[in-house]
Write the structure tokens for this entry.
Amino acid sequence: MRHLLSTKTLSRDEALQILDVAEDMAAVNDREVKKLPTLRGKTVVNLFFEDSTRTRISFEAAAKRLSADVINFSAKGSSVSKGESLKDTAQTLAAMGADGVVIRHHASGAPLVLAESDWIDAPIVNAGDGTHEHPTQALLDAFTMRRRLFGAASRGRDLDGVSVVIVGDILHSRVARSNLWLLETLGAHVTFVAPATLVPFGAEKQWPATISYDFDQTIRQAQPDVVMMLRIQSERMNAAFFPNAREYAREWGLDDARLATLRPDTIVMHPGPMNRGLEISAAAADSAQSTVLEQVTNGVSIRMAVLYLLMSGQPEAAEREAAE
């Protein structure tokens, strides 16, 4: 694996390797000294053309816990805001000696362009590109599901037979797309629930998922192991996709009443940031079934695993290094 650009191109073995190495990294994060020397002397650049808090900080923490130097590059206030191209930015980073690049970009496909170019010779990690994909979010979601469902026996296991219901703004969600491809690879069954206006045209024929427009009916029929609520991405909407916030919350939000109809062991997930009272109630977000904070914690372990596998050149040594 040279780059991580998409979950669609990950094989089952590659996905399981990342999840298993993340188990080793989670052990490191539980230690008093949360450091490995693996990437000492290497430089990771966080190249963010879109605003981000949790993803950028998570990648920064992951790189530093592997002893890498980190450069945070924000498009705002940089030469990009003055018109500098992606090519010129990449070549500048290459000249500075970047050993790995984590990129978030508003244009779908920008990480692929960077990976396939000769502008920079370094592993590229897609931290979210437009409405296309967000692979490390899907990986941390799968890691969280696996740990909650299987506990200590999770290492080496896929998600075969697990029922996952993903609810909300499917149209604009790169998280939904990355989760779909990864969960399919790992053997889970995915059901998307959304207003018809927030489902991509042709999704029923093109995607390996069940499409539903009725949240309550889906809960009754699917009896899901996992319910994942998605943020309404108003910043990507230039039209009215539903009547109003109250209507959306009533039909497609995980409120207290719907929470009560879920199985007691059903996992409630949200990639964040949450719009409490819109897509998820405070009670659901803060319930014992919620994994919202676990997802944040697990995000560091997954991103450590990804950087380790792409940049260390010794993936087989992860368990030994974590134990030392």
Residues 135-292 form a domain with the Rossmann fold fold (CATH 3.40.50.1370).
